[in-house]
Amino acid sequence: MTPFTKPWTTPRQTPPFNDIKTEHYLPAFEEAILEAKQDIERIVNNPESPDFENTIVALDRAGERLSTVADIFFNILECNGDDEMNAVAEKVQPLLVAYENEVYQHPGLFARVKAVHEQQQRDQALQGAEKLLLKKTYDAFVAGGANLPESDKQRFRELSLELANRQLDFGQRSLKATNAWFVHVEKDSLRLSGIPESARAIAAQKAADKGLEGYVFDLSAPDVNTVLSYADDRSLRKEVYMHSSKKAYLDEFDNCENIKEILKCREEIAHLLGYDHYANYALRNRMAKDLDHVYHLLDELKAAALPAAKREIEELKQFAQNQGFEGTFERWDLSYYMEKLRQQKFSLDMEKLKVYFPLNQVIDGVFGLATTLYGLRFEKSADIQPYHPDVQVFEVYRGEKFMAVLYLDFHPRSTKRSGAWMTEFRDQYVNADGEDVRPWVSLVMNFTPPTAEQPSLLTFNEVNTFLHEFGHALNGMLSEVKYASLSGTHSPRDFVELPSQLNENWLTEPEFLRTFARHYQTGELIPEEYVLQLKKMNQYMAGYLCVRQLSFGYLDMMWHTMPATEVDDVRALERSVFDTVEVLPVVPGTCMSPTFSHLFSGGYAAGYYGYKWAEMLEADAFALFKETGVMNKETAQRYLETILSKGGSVDAMEMFVNFRGREPKIDALLERDGLRAS
What we know:
By secondary structure, the protein is α+β, with helices and mostly antiparallel strands. It contains 27 helices and nine strands.
């Protein structure tokens, strides 16, 4: 008996995290898989002729308990993945892969799905979300090997298991490599020069936790960013940069072999399914549709951004020389002099800006924006159980309607992977009884933690990240879709970033900043000159930042279009891409691919271009807000009705056109970033 066996009597029937122990997961998975198989057999053995309701909808609702167990387990694994959880994951992964293969390669089940699909091809009776759900279901079976001959099905099953295990191992190694290193700096050391007091306080606590005096800086994002941006000691910057940039590369956690095997598995799966490489397989259901459209966007942006990036770097080098810098300008100098030049150009010290962004006020500001635009109300819950003591829980309402449970998890832990993400413990959908089942949404970040002397004070970039992830949360919480597999963030990978990136735009809007950005001690509103400078700062280093993102998109496409048998030297191949957009000296011994989790353990394989694709969409979309007023409720309502609430239940291009009145253009993005191509 596990907590997953009986109905939950918790508020909103949320997971009873206090009762769920690590040892419960494996038996819960085993029970839920058996139950899911019974659901499948009921569909297969239905004596009625297959139709949309008794086959496609029934399949969308099958395995509800398994979905619950899996969503909870894998989300907890990402943010509380200790050795015990990792050991369970290694046992669970083969069970899930075997179950998924059994479903998608079940001849009787596929026969029913295929019959409904063929009927639709003949009479086109289904429209809208029903048509999309049928297509998504049929395509999933084909992608799962349902049309393969039996000999190939066996190979497909072997590859699926190998791929799942390799991806899991990739993520575990990346986390272990991140946790494996720190630098100890003694009290009163000159190496501390330039590092803000707030960061020193956090580093002092980390040292104390390790039984050390002085300060500890590790490879968590806040520490790396702080040292690279503020440490006057160039040797410290280099030390942190080097260790951060060679994690899981040629060390005890080396991920190069995983990369090679992951690419081999993906390529062979693509070949089995009739595609020449994995990228074409992945793009089949994306908004971009094919490689030509992907490269057209990347190349157009490169033509505009690369010359600008080179000018920016030359200006930065000249500035550094004027500051007394001598020698070769290296990557560990970049953030340091970017920050100093920023201060000179805009009279704005980003560290001093943090005092206006205490976490609790930022939460109020982000919530307040959603209240103003979409009419949401957030009530903090003391009754709904969090999955960790650090987590805050809210009930979300629109008018009197309950919309979602929202979990907020802000600070780094040794068991939490790096980065920031939105996820769900449960999707929104309408069940068989017609009840609108509302989602449980979670935002996970790695923000600057509080100290004994002061609250968590966020950097400008951390506030931006919060807005980004909250845009995903809005997509989940405001979903009004009938089918779970089409709700919330279940839209094409290159469209799903539109809501998140659109939400970032408000950060430099005075109307938004004035609602919450107050000094955490004095209550003083953020100075008007700061607001004006933040607005002007939108285009600062825009060329370099764009090229950086493009390099990742090109790298992703290289990995997923070249023959996997030719992948030998991971770093050399990575360099072959980066060298085409390089604006800084190459640093020997560094390699980012071994910790590029988006590609090798996340869901962005052959999809990283989607960030720039979605940026084109959101810049164009926000231009409409600019035309009508950034706080215009009518525009916000239109955006909610045409995009936020629709999930993947409407074609992505159709959603955009319904909001914008036309197909997207790149002009707004180039104009906003000052990157109009010559």
